[in-house]
Amino acid sequence: MQRSAEAPSTMSGISRRRFLTVAAAVPACISFPLPAASGTSETRPTGFQSRADFYSAHKDRFLDEFVETNEGARNYLASKYGRKMADAVADESLARFRVLLPDIPYIGGFGNPNTTYLLIAAWCEAWHGPMSRWGKSAENTMRILYDFDKTELAEILRKKALAEGAKKFSKQSLEKTRAWAEWTQRRSFEGDWVAYFVAGDGHEFDFGYDYTECGVVKYFRKHNSMAPAPYFCLNDFIRSQTLGTGLRRSKTLAQGDDVCNFRYKKGRPVLQNWESEVPKFHRA
Q1: Cα distance between residue 195 and residue 76, in whole Å
Q2: What would the pLDDT profile of 143-184 be if each residue is shown by its tens digit?
Q3: Pick from 199, 228, 196: which is nearest to 212 by CA?
């Protein structure tokens, strides 16, 4: 399939994580909550693992995933800035990720799909330091993730993506989304997200939710590295566009607002993207 002009063919080695089946359904700052995450027990959803040494127990898996993606970053950076810088950044980033991995906040392991987003935040943090030492901004760093995600989503069949998105507006899915939001308010894990369901108004949007706490923002703040955070959120728009879920959002915690106000309307064009939003960061 033809790739985007912003996602050159030199991206060989990108992790084939298939964001539609994982990321686009996860209740991070990305698209929709995964229905299975709605709470059914007194304390937490079913499927959560014990806290003990989660990241250490799965160290090889998480390192392999980063190595694969990091090789894509190496090729991507080489196409933009040359091989010398690309090799230096990729090599240092791998060493940095090894250090970051054991200290990623535990929020339930594989039982909580938001764990994926904390791992991706750690990827970005691993890239950010080396990139800055080569004179590159957080915007340059986070464009790596944005272009990777755009490439992944471009390879999803449109009909399949729209069918997946349409499911999110069913009565059953909305009930699960509401239950999931109520579960997050229990704050079972300090590093997790907290959300409040917003019923649709019958005109402007079909449903929404407000995040009052964001695990990615907490993660970057913990590392005194907030510059990448606003860019992380921009991937929400290309995923919503792919799914046909009509996301609009005017506030994010990453930009210093009091909430992230996600509002969805089935089939509405998604007008926000990297090009529309990044200039607002520079004016802030």
Answers
A1: 35
A2: 999 999 999 898 888 999 999 999 999 999 999 999 999 999
A3: 196
Residue of 120, 149, 144 whose CA lies nearest to 131: 144
- The tokens describing 257, both together, are 């607002």
Q: Is residue 111 over pLDDT 90?
A: no
Phi first, then psi, for residue 59 (nearest 5°) are -55, -45
Reduced to 3 states (helix: H, G, I; strand: E, B; else coil), residue 264 is strand
Distance of CA 203 to the CA centre of its chain: 28
Contact at 8 Å (CB) between 74 and 104? no
Both tokens of 189, joined, read: 């894990």
Q: Please, which residues have CB within 8 angstroms of residue 166's CB and are 6 or more apart in sequence? A: 244, 266
- DSSP characters for 72-99? HHHHHHHHHH-HHHHHHHHHHHHHHHHH
Tens-place pLDDT, residues 47-77: 555 666 899 999 999 999 999 999 999 999 9
Alpha carbons 197 and 208: distance in angstroms, whole number: 6
Within 13 Å of residue 106, how many CA atoms lie on the same side as its CB? 14
Question: Could you give phi then psi for residue 145, rounded to 5 degrees?
Answer: -65, -45
The pLDDT tens digits for 186-207 are: 999 999 999 999 999 989 999 9
Q: Is 255 exposed, middle or buried (0-12, 13-18, 19+ CB in 10 A)?
A: middle
